[in-house]
Amino acid sequence: MNNLMRISELKKSYTDGSGNNLDILKGIDLEISENSTLSISGSSGSGKSTLLHILGGLDQPSSGEIFFKNRSLFTFKNKELADWRNTSIGFVFQSHCLLPDFSAIENVAMPAMISGLNKSEALEKALILLKLVNLSERKDHKPQQLSGGEQQRVAIARALINSPQLILADEPTGNLDMKTGDLVGKMLKTVCKNQNTTLIVVTHNPKLATAMDYQLNLQDGLLQKPSY
Ligand SMILES: Nc1ncnc2c1ncn2[C@@H]1O[C@H](COP(=O)(O)OP(=O)(O)OP(=O)(O)O)[C@@H](O)[C@H]1O
Ligand SMILES: [Mg+2]
């Protein structure tokens, strides 16, 4: 299998309010192959969101390297990084972050229009994705007219619109009840597999974690194989 991403000796430290050093990530090494699915679990504050943000180019590590298809992320210029984020990476967060004044289909179409597709083509593509997550009948609903699970499914469709190579999902089912969470988690994995998209999902839900091809635990600043 081809390598999509390689992470080497990744470290991240923060300084707390009193100037003390907090070592959050202490030298992460990880290889992610194309079209695989990986879950990352770990206790609150262990650094899961920090890691995901760095992998998606939303934050900088203190040291270390990230290679995306053998290219170092940190050699990208600002515009290149923004373009890479828009076309190669899809984000799904715990709260859906949909734009309240736009309908479901417009929310899904937005990243495609930002990357230059005309509106009618973007809406056509968005409808195909809404069908994939079983929401075509809700396409004209605004986010507040959708249930939590439906909003998260719109967010999944939106993350997929530019056919990214990698989806980064940070507790995508964290705000949902167990049954809806299971359904949304299953759907996330299925659509990623069907679209040949690699998936990294941070989750506290053991059912979702074990549904992935690989499972890792973030503990004491390092990724470890879980004990279950
Ligand atoms: N900008 C910052 N400045 C200082 N400390 C920070 C900053 N951002 C995060 N931290 C600290 O880094 C640690 C890791 O935070 P992070 O959000 O990555 O945890 P997490 O594993 O995602 O937790 P949760 O499961 O609660 O979402 C926490 O202790 C947090 O307080
Ligand atoms: Mg987090």
Describe this structure in words.
The protein has helices at residues 48-55, 78-88, 104-114, 119-132, 148-160, 178-194, 206-210; strands at residues 3-15, 21-33, 37-41, 63-68, 71-72, 89-92, 166-170, 198-202, 214-219, 222-224. The two termini are 26 Å apart. The strands form two sheets. A six-stranded mixed beta sheet has the order 6-7-8-3-9-10, sandwiched between helices. A four-stranded antiparallel beta sheet has the order 2-1-4-5, with helices on one face. The protein has seven helices and ten strands. The relative contact order is 0.19. The protein is of the alpha/beta class and 228 residues long. The longest helix has 17 residues, at 178-194. Helix 4 packs across helix 5. The chain has one domain: P-loop containing nucleotide triphosphate hydrolases (Rossmann fold), CATH 3.40.50.300.
Number of helices: 7
Low-confidence stretches: none
Based on secondary structure, the structural category is alpha/beta
For the secondary structure, the number of strands is 10
Strand order of the largest sheet: 6-7-8-3-9-10
The fraction of residues in strands falls at 25-35%
List the helices and strands in order. EEEHEEHEHHHEHEHEE
What is the CATH superfamily classification? P-loop containing nucleotide triphosphate hydrolases
Question: And the CATH topology?
Answer: Rossmann fold
The average pLDDT value, as a whole number, equals 93
The number of domains is 1
